[in-house]
């Protein structure tokens, strides 16, 4: 009889422990609904994230560099100057979508996960038609959770950072970046109303090869900021690539834009070609000194990820409408880098970044002028190579 009682007591204790352990286990996990409606089961505390591509890598870095357990691609020599050295030691997990979609191999993810214990693979950008099925498929094959956050248009950025903060258990930084983006977009909505119908025309030259010129046309994912801040006369985009579509010099001469924005190369080849070629010199933008090369560090400012879109917006707005967006761009950039890239720019570094990106550009760096920093922005809280070493990320 005693033995029976002891057995029953032990059985009850075991049942109780099982129930308790199950409750604790359930409390340690949570369900997150991503932006294609998938229910993703995640740990309450996130500390191991893999980016699904270069856009996700840039955005994840802005949220918390310590979360990385792998990189989509090892940063280039130029990028390494601005980024946490730890990223250079991490394994590559490749890119799920875009021009290098095949580089994310399910078998490799499974093998890496044995060592990395990945909490979630983060995908960011524009939702593809088959994305829900695609993510369910690779998650099922690998046993690793994948989550997607939309960050396609400028207007998506504030909400996406709030959702990223929730997904990755980094609500404070997500709120801070969201507040910054909200304030900046409100400032530009008001400013562009003042500009009204008087938008300046522009083209974004991504490459030049003799008589062949590639432009990022209007209506493309990569032209979101260009279309918003100016009259992009590059024609309607056909290609979804960040390198844009092909035109001839005859086409460019007919466009005759007010401003020409040129893709970065380490030798400034495209910029110098436009300034020195007699054909280009017949354009009003060249005659008026309105040719500028996009800065690059750690990535080209003309890239499609949210940090780059915000930089691009501030830079082009001040460049094209200084009477409306009358802040000192140098101050804005020095404020931006610690917040989104966790890097403090020196004055010399800033001058080097923007040597061909400000009025009266010249090979010698221009002096930095001080001004009052943007007020109240934080209240309440690119994959193709463009030249050598600087990527303009693609989705």
Automatic annotation (TrEMBL):
Top-level taxonomic group: Archaea
Domain Fe/B12 periplasmic-binding: 48-324
PANTHER family according to UniProt: MOLYBDATE-BINDING PROTEIN MOLA (PTHR30535:SF34), VITAMIN B12-BINDING PROTEIN (PTHR30535)
Name of the protein described by the UniProt record: ABC transporter substrate-binding protein
Source organism of the structure: Methanocorpusculum vombati
